[in-house]
Design a protein that fits this description.
The complex is a heterodimer.
Chain A: H1 6-19, E1 26-36, E2 39-44, E3 52-55, E4 61-67, E5 71-76, E6 88-95, E7 97-99, E8 108-109, E9 129-131, E10 148-149, H2 154-159, E11 162-163, E12 169-172, H3 178-188, H4 190-193, E13 204-210, H5 214-226, E14 233-238, H6 244-263, E15 267-273, H7 275-288, H8 302-310, E16 314-315, H9 320-323, E17 333-341, H10 350-358, E18 361-365, H11 367-371, E19 384-385, H12 394-419, H13 425-441, H14 451-462, H15 471-488, H16 491-499, H17 504-533
Parallel strand pairs in A: 8-14, 12-17, 12-18, 13-14, 13-15, 15-17
Antiparallel strand pairs in A: 1-2, 1-6, 2-5, 3-4, 3-6, 4-5, 7-9, 10-11, 16-17, 18-19
Chain B: H1 2-21, H2 25-39, H3 42-49, H4 55-65, H5 71-82, H6 92-104, E1 106-113, H7 119-129, E2 136-143, E3 150-155, E4 158-163, H8 164-181
Parallel strand pairs in B: 1-2
Antiparallel strand pairs in B: 1-3, 3-4
Helix pairs in contact in B: 1-6, 2-6, 3-4
The chains are: A alpha/beta, B alpha+beta.
């Protein structure tokens, strides 16, 4: 909390009073006809604009959403109990805006950009305010997605690669780890610029919590803080208890903040968690404003609600400022990761299909996989990324093909494996390989894996170096291999990181190193087994390292 | 709400235009005024506008309660009963007055002040507000000591607040918003 000194407060007040200007201009006014359920109908307000900010008495704000012949329908941002019939409503001549800029990084704000984290006021100027609704960049102001956005999640970076400026939907039932993927992605961005928000290479993150439980938001903020991701992250929170108007506006607020940074040449990734709840908040407001309901009682413009939001995600052209001076610097990007929750795996429902059709691909999370211990529970068979492939690191692209084929063959044959019937050698080999690859894609929460380590792990798996290990040894070995390489052969991961390729010399060295690591792993794990069998006194084993290795981890609970 | 106000406006306009052609605007205006006064009495209103009773008896009750001056008013009321639109009768007077104002280019407004204003001052304010297109502003005075000082004028959906109270409210708002906007 901010320390309050009475002397300073007096000084600030005195300064404010001295600089206060007497404003006596004509203002367009109207009178409240009816109010209730967070919406108001106002008579008058001539010349009112769509999504213009309105001032109700008692400091309650509102926004005009429905302009009719002799009245204006508005939603309120505060309690409707403070507004009475006959109250005077003032129009402000200002579109609904939020403060933007780097001053918001590290902060938790509500849908109107007001801080709610108790860390004091946000230092912004009048010029930092930006309308919530914005125009998406035009065709000539964009360029194709070409840079990778590393999520640090092996299954995604290898098989469903996301590029900067892409829109990738994360879809799944409740409790399947949707929010966890967003958080892990945010944590992984630390590697891009050391977690320093002033470093231009740092990818900035925005988490928009729409209709979430307050406890979930607190949890997310705590996880981001604990893992050092908060300094480069903005959290926009419109929890379930907020008025529906703020809930449906929150993604636009977050997007406006992201766009500002994008237009200054920064790279931003924004997670909308989740758009289904936003759609229901919008439905509530629109039904109260008497818009005609359509399918599932959603208003007719529900598709546009999401498409105009997601269209604002873009990779700007390098010379965008030349084409439109509104962009301060070219080359920036805004990557959108919308989340949609499904009911009972029904992704053919109205809102999910809408958002699927707008995005550039989707990551399906399945409860069955999640409960079977495949975490993250990504169904790689039906998840796709339509544009990210161009942005994938070449080394990964080269080996990911093998991974995809191996897993696809395994899926075909998986049912046979359960019978334990006599299988021919080739089939058996495919099942063995598939089981190990599936094991390889499992990953703990909050442990993003750098791209070079991902490449090494997947290389080992697809080239068959794990086939002679037991399934339960795969993850311990993966961890051992990573440590072994970084300690004994640091030039191999370094070369992959820098060249983004597996060069011929490196490949040979890598194969040798994997063999050496395996020998050592089998030897030490044999010893460990012996040591475990011996009385506890003789135990000298080091504690298991944090990460994907070690003894069977307790399940990483999805925070969603 | 909006549907009924549109209906009211339509009937008022038709009545006004007919009255203007027959030079009966003033008489009809007086008739509508007496209708409004008569219907303000709950016993009359419940007989004439209530749900019970047939139309003929309702109309008779109305004719007994409100003697009408001009033949046009009588025809109009007959017409309303015939169309089952008697429900708009109480609100017709202000709608008709608005039509009269519109035709004469008068814009009505309210000026609020902490102390009573002299007539000459009121006329001066009206003249200052007269529109360039010949619209004449007619202001009603409302005295509200809570304004402390200054004037608040509201004309045609626009408001000018030059009162001490308004300035204090603006200052309060500034102080509340100050930290967020401060450089």
């Amino acid at each position: 909390m901010v320390e309050i000194r009475p002397g300073e407060v007096t000084a600030v007040l005195r300064q404010q009073i001295a600089s206060a200007k007497a404003r006596t201009d004509w203002k367009s006014v109207g009178r409240v006809l009816q109010v209730g359920d967070g919406v108001a109908r106002v008579h008058g307000l001539e010349g009112c604009m769509m999504s213009e900010l309105l001032k109700f008495p008692e400091g309650v704000g509102g926004v005009a959403l429905s302009l009719e012949e002799d009245n204006v329908g508005a939603v309120l941002f505060g309690s409707d109990r403070l507004v009475k019939e006959g109250d005077v409503v003032e129009s402000t001549g200002r579109l609904l805006s939020v403060p933007t800029g780097e001053a918001l990084l590290g902060r938790v704000v509500n849908a109107l950009g007001e801080p709610i984290d108790g860390k004091g006021p946000i230092q912004v100027t009048e010029a930092d305010w930006r309308p919530m609704e914005g125009r998406s960049p035009s065709v000539i102001e964009r360029q194709p997605v070409k840079e990778p956005l590393q999520t640090g999640i092996k299954a995604i970076d290898a098989m469903i690669p996301i590029g900067r400026g892409q829109r990738e939907l994360i879809i799944g039932d409740r409790q399947t780890g949707k929010t966890a993927i967003l958080i892990d992605t945010f944590l992984a961005q630390r590697t891009t610029g050391g977690g320093d928000p002033r470093n231009p290479a740092q990818v900035l993150c925005i988490y928009v919590a729409t209709g979430q439980k307050q406890s979930t938001v607190v949890d997310v903020v705590r996880k981001l803080e604990e893992n050092g991701a908060m300094p480069y992250t903005i959290v926009v929170s419109a929890p379930a208890g907020d008025p529906a108007s703020l809930q449906f506006l929150s993604p636009y607020a977050g997007c406006a903040m992201g766009e500002r940074l994008r237009d200054e040449g920064r790279h931003v990734v924004i997670g909308y968690d989740d758009l289904y709840k936003q759609a229901t908040a919008y439905r509530q407001v629109m039904l109260l404003l008497r818009r005609p309901p359509g399918r599932e009682a959603f208003p007719g413009d529900i598709f546009n609600l999401h498409s105009r939001l997601l269209e604002r995600a873009a990779k700007l052209a390098d010379d965008a400022p030349k084409k439109n001076p509104a962009f301060k610097k070219g080359g920036g990007s805004l990557t959108a990761l919308p989340v949609v929750e499904t009911q009972e795996g029904d992704y053919a429902a109205y809102i999910p299909t809408n958002v699927i059709s707008i995005t550039d691909g989707q990551i399906y999370l399945e409860a069955d996989l999640f409960n079977a211990g495949v975490r993250p529970g990504i169904n790689v068979g039906i998840s796709v990324s339509r544009v990210g492939g161009n942005a994938q690191v070449p080394a990964m692209r080269k080996i990911a093909g093998g991974l995809r084929i191996g897993l696809a063959q395994y899926r075909e044959l998986r049912s046979f494996a359960q019978f334990g019937s006599d299988l021919d050698k080739a089939t058996l080999a495919q099942i063995t390989r598939g089981q190990r690859l599936e094991e390889l894609l499992k990953q703990g929460q909050f442990v993003p894996v750098p791209v070079e380590d991902q490449v090494i792990s997947i290389f080992a798996g697809t080239k068959g170096h794990l086939d002679d290990l037991r399934i339960d040894q795969v993850r311990p070995f993966e961890e051992a291999l990573r440590r072994f390489l970084h300690e004994r052969h640091p030039q191999i991961p370094a070369s992959i990181r820098e060249t983004r390729k597996i060069e011929e010399g490196t490949e040979k060295a890598l194969v040798d190193a994997i063999a050496a690591a395996k020998t050592e792993f089998l030897r030490t794990s044999g010893e460990t087994q012996k040591a475990e069998a011996a009385p506890p006194k003789g135990r000298t084993e080091a504690p298991a390292p944090k990460g994907a290795g070690g003894p069977p981890k307790k399940p990483a609970a999805g925070s969603h | 709400m909006s549907e009924s106000s549109r209906l009211l406006r339509r009937y008022a306009r038709a009545l006004f235009e007919t009255a203007r052609e027959g030079n009966a605007v003033a008489g009809v205006g007086r008739d509508l005024g007496s209708i409004a006064t008569a219907l303000a009495d709950p016993s009359v209103a419940s007989t004439v506008l209530g749900a019970s009773g047939d139309r003929a008896s309702k109309k008779k009750a109305f004719e007994r309660a409100v003697p009408l001056e001009t033949p046009l008013s009588r025809t109009f009321v007959d017409f309303l009963f015939q169309r089952r639109r008697e429900g708009i009768l109480p609100a017709l007077a202000p709608a008709f007055a608005a039509e009269v104002d519109r035709a004469e280019g008068i814009v009505r407004g309210v000026v609020e002040a902490a102390v009573p204003l002299a007539d000459a001052d009121l006329r001066a304010i009206e003249r200052a507000l007269d529109g360039p297109a010949g619209a004449r502003v007619s202001l009603a005075l409302r005295v509200d000591p809570a304004l402390v000082g200054g004037l608040r004028i509201e004309v045609a959906g626009r408001r000018l607040d030059a009162t001490v109270r308004g300035r204090l409210a603006a200052l309060r708002e500034d102080l509340l918003e100050a930290p967020l906007r401060q450089t």
